[in-house]
Amino acid sequence: MKVLTVNFLTCAVKACKGTALSFPLHFRDAELVQQEMDFHPTFVRNVLLRVDWEGLKVTAAELGFTTLPAEKPEGEALDNEQLLKDLHTLLLETQVTEGKLVCGNCQHEYAIKEGIPNFLLPNHLGSAPKSEAAFVE
Amino acid sequence: MAQYLIRLVQVHESFRKPEIFALAALENINVEVLSYDESSPFCTVKLHDEAAARALISRSILSKAIFELWATSSTYKDLHAAIRQNTASKWVHYKDCSFKFEVDAYQGKRSAAAQKELIESFSYMGFNGPIVMRGADETFCIFEEWDGSGTSLKQVWMGRLVARGSRDAITTYDLKKRCYISTTSMDAELALLTANLALAAPGKVIYDPFVGTGSFLFAAAHFGAYVTGSDIDGRSIRGKDRKRNVKANFKQYGLEGRFLDAWVADITNNPLRAGRWLDGIVCDPPYGVREGLKVLGTRDQARMKEVFYLENGEAAHL
């Protein structure tokens, strides 16, 4: 699981949605690997617009990356190829293969196995499904 | 502005025009459709220039190719007259280049000899360059549309090839050659078409909430997008073994560099962060018998509150 994906996701429990503590999810017992990905400066620039920078700083610090700029790079700062490469390495090439993601609000743990996180909820945390007819409508 | 002829394929007809408009939106091209009919594979459009024509069609799945339209008519007599009258100034540009002619008869057939005779009838244009069947500098094409019974000619067109579409990709992503598929894997043609309709392109993030074996993601990644997906059934993502899973498919196509992540989640209790971080969602939602409706939870309120504990006292869900 990539650092970028963690930045796009939050707790699956509906009551946690929108609470300050539920984002970002926190890594626990994370095993890291580096895997090479295509480097496209345009993509990094594009995707930075959608990244929650405060959340990314928290995630990065938890994984041991402490050199992130305090403010999200914008405008001319994005012409710096080295900065884009560093961000590319952090967002796309740094991956968690085993471990857990923990919600800071409800403390629910989502297991990551073979790089695939599991966000399925147990019965007592899920919402009651609507009837099939309601879905069709 | 010039007129161009798009040679469409006669499948998924209702998606052909939407695909052209989607690609026009993606490439920021002005398209004016001059003639189009669901029952015909020929569509004439007005475009700014050849570059626009190339950009419009080069990634199209439901178009074979786009041609600079030289003339069209219901009879060959009028076609030749129109070519002589309107395109004489163009002939000189193709005087010395290598070239070839093709005959494309829709709902009709012409023997090789008849095709040759037909091609010879255009000799007045004075192309003196070598005739090359493979890799010619310029390709000219004569199109015929016959009526359903193949007895009377409805319309003829003559044009010069500008660019071919992306139908080769359908073979590349053919399910028969993919290392990991399941009963409901989406066929390559429709997946690629969907990616075009979703405007998948370099620098974008495309998401499939019912990812299964990943068919839509390969199509979107083929067009340069970074892709991510989720499914309620983790087994479909993890696959059968090391060589048969979603990631292995990405490897097979050399697209693993554009694969963000696949995760296990129920779309009715999803972990997506609110905000505009996606460029597009492509999916084939579950329906029917093979993959029916499945969501988390139970309608039994009493069971909803239960927490299961393991023997060592830990909650089973943690």
Describe the structure.
Chain B: This is tRNA (guanine(10)-N(2))-methyltransferase. Chain B: Belongs to the class I-like SAM-binding methyltransferase superfamily. TRM11 methyltransferase family. The complex is a heterodimer of chains A (137) and B (318). Chain A has five helices and four strands. Chain A has helices spanning 3-8, 41-48, 53-62, 81-93, 132-136; strands at residues 26-34, 94-102, 109-113, 116-117. Chain A starts with a helix and ends with a helix. Chain A has one domain (3-124): N-terminal domain of TfIIb. Chain A is α+β, with helices and mostly antiparallel strands. A seven-stranded mixed sheet of chain B has the order 2-3-1-4-7-6-5. In chain B, helix 4 links the parallel strand 5 and strand 6 (138-146). In chain B, helix 1 packs across helix 2 and helix 6 crosses helix 7. Chain B folds into two domains: 2-164, VC0802-like (2-Layer Sandwich), CATH 3.30.2130; 168-303, Vaccinia Virus protein VP39 (Rossmann fold), CATH 3.40.50.150. Chain B has helices spanning 16-27, 50-57, 76-91, 112-120, 168-172, 188-197, 215-222, 234-238, 246-252, 301-304; strands at 2-8, 32-35, 42-47, 63-73, 99-106, 138-146, 153-164, 205-208, 226-231, 259-264, 280-281. Helices cover 26% and strands 24% of the residues of chain B. Chain B has 318 residues and is an alpha/beta fold.
